[in-house]
Amino acid sequence: MSEALRGARRGPPVMGTFTDLFSLVVPQVILLIHWVLTVWGCIDFSGAYAWANFTILALGVWAVAQPDSVDAISMFLGGLLATIFLDIVHISIFYGMATLTDVGRFGAGMAILSLLLKPFSCYLVYHMYRERGGELLIHIGFLGPSQDRSAYQTIDSTEAPADPFAIPDGRGQATPGY
Predict the structure, then answer these.
(1) Phi and psi for 144 in degrees, rounded to 5?
(2) Of 53, 101, 105, 121, which has fewest CB within 10 angstroms of its CB?
(3) Please, what is the Cα angle at 93 between 92 and 94, to 5 degrees?
(4) Can you tell me the mean pLDDT for 65-89?
(5) pLDDT per residue over 104-155, tens digit each?
(6) Contact 95/68 with Cβ under 8 angstroms?
(7) What is the spatial distance between Cα 83 and Cα 90, in angstroms, rounded to a whole number?
(8) What does the alpha-carbon distance between residue 107 and residue 44 come to, in Å, rounded to a whole number?
(9) Nearest-angstrom CA–CA distance, 75 and 128
(10) Angle CA(65)–CA(70)–CA(75) in degrees, nearest 5?
(11) Exposure string (b/e) for 115-134, b if CB count within 10 Å is 16 or more?
């Protein structure tokens, strides 16, 4: 199809690659699943559990609304990681404090299922973060190769290696006068 015909055609843009589809659909699916599980989890757990999870879902809506924002997706990723810890604490403290009915057990089960799905959601959101141009500040082997090559010197280099113990000019240690 020529460029002139492509520009003249009306309607939604045609999806080009799997990455485009991944970037558009996955955040919305993650939000929908965690929203449903959080609503059901609030049957048994309320208060802090609801505040933490719905706040993170609001950050997820921000990440969907601004598909090019690294800040939005990084906040969503950090929030998901934080709620993993908070959900563990909340469920372990408040589970079974009262006599659970079938509805209460269902709510607790959905909260636990949401907790079990969050690491996988974090993995997907992390890949979206990298897609949007985010960089990993802590280099962990299984999350991808390290891009920091500042201390690396090739064998072919003719430059002398930098002395790691050198003191910069003007910052020498002067002996104090008494």
Answers:
(1) 140, 165
(2) 101
(3) 100
(4) 91
(5) 889 889 999 999 999 999 999 998 888 888 776 665 555 555 455 555 556 6
(6) no
(7) 10
(8) 5
(9) 12
(10) 80
(11) beebeebbebbbbbbeebee
DSSP 96-143: TSS---HHHHHHHHHHHHHHHHHHHHHHHHHHHHHHTT---SS--GGG
pTM, two decimal places? 0.64
Tokens matching residue 50: 């609801």
Burial string for 9-20 (b: 16+ CB within 10 Å, else e) reads eeeeeeeeeeee
Cα gap 112→95, rounded to integer Å: 10
AA identity, residue 116: L
Burial class (CB in 10 A: 0-12, 13-18, 19+), 42: middle
Q: Name the residue with higher pLDDT: 24 or 164.
A: 24
> Which amino acid is located at 38 in the chain?
T
| Token code pair at residue 24 | 């558009």
CA distances from 13 to 10, 128, 141 (A): 9, 21, 37
